[in-house]
Design goal:
elongated, single chain, 33% helix, alpha/beta, six-stranded parallel β-sheet
Length: 241
């Protein structure tokens, strides 16, 4: 184990108030494509720009086209958690990790066993009828041929934050509170270029900011440790079960 990993392990072992803030890079190691890289969803060619398809107005006006894209590109029912997800779940089990703040909507943190997960952009695993509010599983979305409809006739909408929609204020407040109180903040799998979510780390008041991302971020210069490696391999090596 190199010196950087030894230092990271020491920081983790010495703290019982860690918060993790994660982005798409946490899930790409499970095989889920990200959005903004050269090979990401936003750089693929469709009849409409992906940012348009994933907007509230497009969903309301063209739900059928939205769902064709959504099922193909955002739902990954057979994908499993990776080393990063399991390492974070283990830290929570040990009482060290107090919260996970994630920009991902795939539900893999929950699948790995984490409990206190704050999903800034919602979750594909939760769906509700826009007319009566009835809840539906992701299987309902996958199995429907076109626009999924509730038994009342209303359109079922994924509980994910689309463009033009605000983030959930209660989730934001809980995330800010957790980050502000954290002794150690580990940020992983995110370029920290997407706001308002990236701005949340500015609430961190401690002096142990750990950044784990394959590429550099605008916050590297503020970090006590900046590790440009796989987040799954990194956390997998330093977290002991």
């Amino acid at each position: 184990m190199n010196d950087v990993l030894v230092r990271l392990k020491e920081v983790i072992q010495s703290s019982d108030n860690i918060v993790f803030f994660g982005g798409a890079g946490v899930s790409t190691e499970s095989g889920i494509p990200d959005f903004r890289s050269a090979d990401g969803i936003y750089n693929m060619k469709y009849a409409y720009p992906p940012e348009m398809i994933l907007s509230h107005s497009f969903f309301m006006q063209n739900a059928g086209e939205f769902y064709r894209f959504y099922r193909e590109k955002l739902l990954h029912p057979h994908v499993q958690p990776n080393k990063a997800h399991y390492a974070l779940a283990e830290l929570e089990r040990q009482g060290k990790l107090k919260a996970i703040v994630t920009q991902n909507v795939d539900g893999l943190h929950h699948a790995a066993g984490s409990v206190n997960v704050l999903e800034l952009h919602g979750s594909c695993n939760r769906n509700y009828c826009m007319k009566c509010g009835a809840a539906y599983t992701v299987e309902t979305i996958i199995e429907s041929d076109d626009i999924p409809l509730c038994i009342c006739g209303g359109i079922i909408k994924p509980d994910v934050v689309l463009f033009e929609e605000p983030l959930d204020e209660s989730v934001i407040e809980r995330s800010v509170r957790a980050i502000r109180k954290a002794e150690v903040l580990i940020v992983g799998g995110t370029s920290l270029n997407v706001y308002p979510a990236a701005g949340l780390i500015e609430y961190y008041k401690g002096n142990q900011l750990i950044l784990i991302n394959k590429s550099e971020t605008p916050f590297d210069r503020y970090a006590s440790l900046a590790i440009h490696e796989s987040i799954g391999e990194t956390l997998g090596k330093v977290v002991e079960s």
